[in-house]
Amino acid sequence: AFFANRFTLIDPGYIRLFGSLRVLIAAVVSVAVVAIGLELAGKAPMPTAIFGGMIAMFAGGVAAQSGARPGLAKFGGMLTLVPVVVAVGLITLVPRERLPSVLAVAALAFVGVLLSRFGPQGAGLGRVLFMTFYFSLLLRLSPDDFWLYALTGLVSVTASVLVQFIPLGHGHVGLVRSGVRAFENSVAHSIDPLVDTVSAARWDPDL
Length: 207
Known about the structure:
Blueprint: H1 15-40, H2 48-67, H3 81-93, H4 98-115, H5 120-139, H6 146-162, H7 172-201
């Protein structure tokens, strides 16, 4: 209670905190799985493992939206694999010259904006598409890298989806109670300055 009353960010039920923890866990698991797999295969784990961790973080938002649904609907976050594979496929086909790369980035940014018209999940898929392409562009992937990075994307997206099954935080009742308490604190914090202002203004003849 001592720390909860002193946080500058209102987070009922610590839902944002636990959501961030899920994304962090997914990224760590993805990096570990990819790195260990590549080590066993006799290949250098970097930068492929870093790519896996980034994709896990990119996919975390879409996976969290699906994770709020009941039952097998939680696996709807696997849809994030589509923009990841598309972005990796495009980066292996686009010439490495500056102009084609700039045009591809602009085109994908436009596609991302169009996808945002289909709701939060569409906007999330658009962000994953653009960010994956941009990050892959920095890695300068070649056509020979497609299957390795597509498989890495599969591992990362799967980790982001599975981590949504980890029970963190309070139940629905605790979340509602925390939300009401946060609202009360917000109202109290907004009224206190007004009370101070009115109290000071009573002694001011110009007011």
